[in-house]
Design a protein that fits this description.
single chain, mainly alpha, two-stranded antiparallel sheet, 14 helices, membrane, iron, metal-binding
């Protein structure tokens, strides 16, 4: 009897194991799967969007991929996005976990954060300060920066790429933190581009294993996990830059030397919005 039970359990376990990675009938179509891995063996290590486009031509605007036991649904047309994100927003408002983004930002990046209390606080804050009047008030900054970028392009056209980057960064820094970047080599500008480059490397598809789909990978020791080292480096670069700028805004508010940037308004209304230092940064 014991032998029969053990044999039955063994068969059940093997069948369950064999079904891992297979596509459920209720899912959209997709590439053929193999046991255990699903589509992991053909998932592109880099430039995933190119392969996604190829698969879309074969399987349609909405198709599915199996990454081990987990499922990824890929949406490749604006009509499908509108149908799912607008008409079905009640069930699609949240985002799946993003280990890399959460590890770097602590789950407080409004673009990548999950739908929860912190996200609602961030959205409420952005909605309160990004008013038409506030946007109009900052138009002179854009005019001034546009004037400088035209001057720079006329005087050193060979550096047009750096001029455009400086311009866009200086507009953002001035509006958010009240500190412009008059030269591409300005410390805050170079720090921003370095931090942004690290951020792009960390989030690039194929830059790390599918940690969100295979959660056990989170426990890989740091010395064998280059993505953990990259996350730490990115987090350090971002915090040094943004909290440094935030401290300067705090100092101006305390000294009554404000220049009307968005972060000064947030600091003055932080209790109203329910923001702590991490959320402000």
């Amino acid at each position: 009897m014991t032998t029969v039970v053990v044999l039955f359990l063994l068969i059940w376990f093997i069948r369950r194991l064999y079904r891992i990675g297979s596509r459920e009938p209720s899912l959209p179509p997709g590439p053929p799967t193999i046991p255990l891995l699903g589509n992991l063996n053909i998932f592109p290590a880099e430039y995933a969007h190119y392969k996604f486009t190829v698969w879309a031509r074969e399987y349609g605007d909405i198709y599915s991929l199996k990454i081990g036991p987990s499922t990824v649904v890929v949406i490749t047309s604006m009509d499908a996005v509108k149908e799912l994100m607008e008409k079905c927003s009640g069930s699609t408002a949240d985002r799946p976990p993003n280990y890399i983004a959460d590890n770097v930002s602590g789950g407080l990046n409004m673009v990548l954060a999950r739908y929860g209390n912190e996200w609602r606080i961030l959205r409420k804050t952005a909605h309160a300060i990004l008013t038409p009047n506030a946007v109009t008030a900052h138009l002179p900054i854009q005019v001034a920066e546009a004037t400088q970028v035209m001057y720079d392009l006329l005087n050193s056209p060979e550096r047009f790429y750096n001029h455009i980057r400086r311009y866009s960064n200086s507009v953002i820094m001035s509006v958010l933190y009240g500190k412009r970047c008059p030269r591409y080599e300005t410390r805050e500008a170079t720090s921003f581009f370095e931090a942004q480059h690290l951020w792009e490397l960390a989030l690039e598809p194929g830059a790390h294993p599918p940690i969100d789909l295979l959660p056990f990978l989170r426990h890989v020791p740091r010395r064998w996990a280059p993505w953990k080292i990259l996350c730490d480096k990115t987090r350090k670069a971002q915090r040094e830059l943004y909290f440094g700028l935030l401290d300067e805004c705090n100092q101006r508010v305390q000294q009554g030397d404000e220049n009307g940037c968005y972060m000064e308004e947030i600091i003055k209304r932080q209790d109203e919005f329910g923001l702590d230092r991490e959320l402000r940064g």
